[in-house]
Amino acid sequence: MAIRVTPPQDLIVVAESSAGFYPGRFSEYTSIRGARITNGHLAAVEQDGNLALMFATREEGPLFAIANEDLRRADKVKSGLNTVVEVVAKDGETVCFVGPRGRMRKIFAGVGHPLM
What is the pTM of this model? Predict the structure, then answer.
């Protein structure tokens, strides 16, 4: 599994934003009646020279991080005021994030995966 929990100490935040998280493909989210996203914060972080995407909630703190070297691709699948980004890890695991368009661009550029 490419997604792993990272301890929050010694992190440098490159860019961050409020965001929603769904554990699967965007097409799955839109096809499941009553599907919910988890609200929280998405950040591009650096720890000991390594970049990662980190998702955290207010209640539980950091839930997971995806290391830059574990990211295969990040695709913008829908955009308006908010952007939906589908992230595919090297092991094929897929997750979706939704958040403000400009901030999402900064976050993904911060981990070396600019959104087109």
Answer: 0.85
Count of C-beta atoms within a 10 Å radius of residue 26: 19
Q: How far apart are CA 68 and CA 60, in angstroms?
A: 23
**CA–CA separation, 70 vs 35, rounded Å?**
27
Given a contact cutoff of 8 angstroms between Cβ atoms, the answer to whether 14 and 44 are in contact is yes
Q: What is the CA radius of gyration of the chain?
A: 13
* Tally of CA atoms within 13 A in the half-sphere of 96 that contains its CB: 20
CA distance 110 to 99: 15
Order of strands across the sheet that contains 38-47 = 3-4, 61-67, 50-57, 38-47, 12-22, 94-100, 82-89, 71-79
- For residue 50, which of 22, 10, 98, 95 has the smallest C-alpha distance? 10
Query: Which are the contacts of 54, defined by CB distance < 8 A and separation ≥ 6?
Result: 6, 11, 42, 43, 44, 45, 62, 64, 65
pLDDT in tens, 47-92: 888 899 999 998 888 888 889 899 999 999 999 999 999 999 999 9
